[in-house]
Design a protein that fits this description.
Blueprint (H helix, E strand, L loop, with lengths): L5 E6 L5 H12 L2 E4 H14 L3 E2 L2 E2 L1 H7 L5 E5 L5 E5 L2 E2 L7 H10 L3 H14 L5 E5 L2 H5 L5 E6 L2 H14 L6 H17 L12 E4 L5 H16 L1
Parallel strand pairs: 1-8, 1-9, 2-8, 9-10
Antiparallel strand pairs: 3-4, 5-6, 6-7
Helix pairs in contact: 1-9, 2-4, 2-5, 7-8
Bound molecules: 2'-deoxycytidine-5'-monophosphate.
2'-deoxycytidine-5'-monophosphate binds next to α2, α4 and α8.
Length: 228
């Protein structure tokens, strides 16, 4: 590979975006940034501060206090990347079903998105980055040299997510997870601010019927072509 580029990986929730983005970053020696983790951390922090009651976010108070939230990524000794709020590693707290829903709620708010996008653009200044999210190819880096839009059918995603959650000991059912996946898809694609959509120049990667290895090979092929 000759030149350093920005790789934007977008797609629906639980479709394997982060797996493919992490693998590509490792393959290329690039930095990996999980922007979903940022929205999840905002959601966690917002709820902890009592600013989410049921499904309602107190936007006024959130706006007044958001500048107090210190988000950062740290690489641990085992090579994994964790997100921190201040000095606290919140990587495992942000992976619950409640945190997913809270992330989805706060990610519909314009001033939250603008703050996250500004941080993300700064992280990409040096290129050599793989960033995954919903609006990376459309809003954060519209000029990214490679844009991949990852897709899998909702039932396939719900099944994968159900296994992940139950393995972590969460009490849930497949139907409940499928419902949450569909609700999140709806919110992600219908919100006024940066709704999820495939950029015109993004390449669709449908992994519903691919093995992880087949998916990785396709993505590597795309990366090699883009960096030539
Ligand atoms: O990818 P994820 O499931 O960790 O994302 C959590 C939530 O954050 C999800 O509802 C979509 C939202 N999100 C977003 O709006 N924009 C991004 N760039 C990344 C995530």
């Amino acid at each position: 590979m000759t030149k350093k580029i920005i790789v934007a990986v977008d797609g629906y929730s639980s479709c394997g975006k982060s797996t493919i983005a992490k693998q590509l970053a490792k393959y290329a020696g690039y930095t990996y940034i999980d922007t979903g983790a940022m929205y999840r951390a905002v959601g966690l922090w917002t709820r902890r501060n009592g600013l989410i009651v049921g499904e309602n976010v107190d936007e006024g108070k959130l706006k007044a206090n958001l500048s107090n939230l210190q988000l950062s990524f740290h690489r641990l000794d085992d090579g994994t990347q964790h997100i921190f709020i201040g000095e606290e590693d919140v990587e495992s707290q942000i992976r619950t079903l409640e945190a997913s829903n809270d992330a989805s709620l706060v990610s519909t708010i314009g001033f939250v998105r603008r703050r996250m996008v500004a941080m993300q653009q700064q992280m990409g200044e040096q290129k050599g980055i793989v960033m995954d999210g919903r609006d990376i190819g459309t809003v954060v880096f519209p000029n990214a040299e490679l844009k991949i839009f990852v897709f899998a059918r909702p039932e396939v995603r719900a099944q994968r997510r159900f296994l992940e959650l139950t393995q972590k000991g969460e009490q849930t059912t497949y139907d409940e997870v499928l419902k949450a996946v569909e609700e999140r898809d709806y919110r992600d694609t219908h919100r006024a601010e940066s709704p999820l959509r495939q950029a015109e120049d993004a390449i669709l990667l449908d992994n519903s019927d691919l093995t992880p290895e087949q998916q990785l090979n396709k993505a590597i092929e795309l990366l090699e072509k883009a960096t030539k």
